Amino acid sequence: MASSPPPSRMRCVLVMALLVMAMAARTSTAEKKLLFDQVQLTWGEYHSFFYMDGDEDTLALCLDETNGSGFASKDSYLYGRFDIDMKLVANNSAGTVTTLYLMPEDVPWEYHDEIDLEFLGNVTGEPYTLHTNIFANGVGRREQQFRLWFDPTEDFHTYSIVWNPKHILILVDGVPIRDYKNDPATKMPFPTWQHMRLHGTIWNADDWATQGGRVKTDWTQSPFFAYYRNLRVTPCVPSPGVPWCGAEPAESTRFEEDLDHEALRRSKEQHLLYDYCRDLIKSGDKVLPMECTQD
Ligand SMILES: *[C@@H]1O[C@H](CO)[C@@H](O)[C@H](O)[C@H]1NC(C)=O
Ligand SMILES: *[C@@H]1O[C@H](CO)[C@@H](O)[C@H](O)[C@H]1NC(C)=O
Ligand SMILES: *[C@@H]1O[C@H](CO)[C@@H](O)[C@H](O)[C@H]1NC(C)=O
After folding, report:
1. β-pair partners for 100
2. 36-66 in b/e burial notation, b at 16+ Cβ within 10 A?
3. Which of 83, 175, 223, 276 is the residue whose CA sits 20 to 30 A from 265?
4. Which residue has the higher pLDDT, 282 or 161?
């Protein structure tokens, strides 16, 4: 017997009133950049919405059985620091994936660059996994996964990507968890030339996301909401006299100054769950990628 469609209250709703309230409240937060002005909805726009939470304009992305949703920054950037506050799907989030990533406009796959954070949901009471990957020139397979040290559904936390010519850093509440180096010695590709936009999405990935795909999305719990706010974009600043970050001389230590090696070491020890650099099976050719065996 065919199962009947879920009642419509389980679908995302278009909350126009909240959007109107958010617009009306703009004057009171004139100093601060509104997320509403910084991003555009790119996907499932009919069921994501902005609302004011105190003086924070907040974007709720919604996932239901019909669709997920997503946004992209209106501006694109070549190097910079991106900080945003996110609160993830609460309770039974199994099968859902909430993302934050940098990616260029449509380019052929051989030019595909991406700096990717994916928050893999879980059944109530079990922890999220933060899955990260870096693509350069169409090649990814640089996955590292982390266990967060707090419940990311209880409150907003700050997730950051620092991207400069020498490093890609991922930080959680200011704590660096991942550092991917542009090291000429390894000849690994690194995103160095394309402007990228910041994206956020929520989608259904219950074929693989939770406990290896064994736990499926429970649509009776839908709609699922993930919240974003307080986007801060800080363009990369080169050394005095250098026209832009990409022209920084090779011997410059500009991009090493803020690196906290000790904090990175601690994160690896305490929060790292999976590391492609330790995965001989996945690397296929029986040798670890070159960047894994440097330092
Ligand atoms: C989901 O959203 C995309 C983009 O907005 C749209 O093209 C697609 O038709 C939607 N899918 C469903 C099932 O509504
Ligand atoms: C999560 O579960 C708690 C307790 O049942 C409930 O109060 C809360 O509204 C739920 N949150 C969401 C986002 O469904
Ligand atoms: C979900 O919870 C299980 C059990 O604690 C854990 O093994 C798994 O890593 C968690 N995360 C995901 C995405 O499956």
Report:
1. 117, 200
2. bebbebebbeebbbbbbeeebbbbbbbbbee
3. 83
4. 161
The CB of 58 under 6 Å from ligand 1? The reply is no
- Cβ of 90 below 6 Å from ligand 2: yes
Question: What is the Å distance from ligand 2's center to 17 Cα?
Answer: 23
**Burial (0-12, 13-18, 19+ Cβ within 10 Å), 284:** exposed
257 is catalytic: no
Q: Going from the N-terminus, what domains does the chain have, and what CATH number goes with each?
A: 32-293 (2.60.120.200)
Specify the pTM. Answer: 0.89
Is 114 one of the annotated active-site residues of the chain? yes
* Distance from the alpha carbon of residue 142 to the mean position of ligand 1, in angstroms: 30
Question: Choosing from 56, 65, 114, 126, which is the catalytic residue?
Answer: 114
Q: What is the pLDDT of residues 117-150, one digit of tens each?
A: 999 999 999 999 999 999 999 988 899 999 999 9
Q: How far is the CA of 185 from the centre of ligand 1 (A)?
A: 44
